[in-house]
Amino acid sequence: MGWVRATVLAWSLTGAAMAQTAPGALPAPTGQVILTVRGVISVTNGNTEAALDRAMIEAMGVVTVHTGTIWTDGTSEFQGVELSRLLAHLGADGTTLRLTALNDYAVDIPATEAVEGGPVLAFRMDGKDLSPRDKGPLWMIYPYDVNTAYKNEVSYSRSVWQLSSIEVLD
């Protein structure tokens, strides 16, 4: 229950900071940056990119997905923000997304993958925050068990763990 209170507090603080920021601008992150989004976006906190800490990502709205993966045993509970919500929040307007991990693994996916009920940038699995050692701090998870159309090699290759940046391309 403590994480719920912390999430609400972080959302309130981030919302208050955003209200004091110019339109099209994000506040500067106050915690460690875990995701950088650049490219064709209209909302930034730098010259051309959005640097996001965990609280900023959580403030966009946390969803929960119950699904199994080919990398884990059984069904797990993942919490994170939907990719579609993140991109909408940042005013993304491109056709391709380049996802890059901490180890420089990169994959291009069509922006049309970012749909409600689609991929989630998970930061928590089974109640535990994801660390780089555990595929975090962000792991793009598809709801494989909810929509079995995601159970294929293409979706698996797009399930980037240790996600560190997204570039929105024309």
Automatic annotation (TrEMBL):
InterPro entries in the cross-refs: OxRdtase_Mopterin-bd_dom, OxRdtase_Mopterin-bd_sf
Q: Which domain of life is it from?
A: Bacteria
Q: Give the signal sequence positions.
A: 1-19
Q: Which Pfam families match?
A: Oxidored_molyb
Q: Which UniProt keywords apply?
A: Signal
Domain (Oxidoreductase molybdopterin-binding) ranges:
66-143
**Mind telling me what this protein is named?**
Oxidoreductase
Q: Can you name the source organism?
A: Pseudotabrizicola sediminis
Its lineage opens with: Bacteria, Pseudomonadati, Pseudomonadota, Alphaproteobacteria, Rhodobacterales
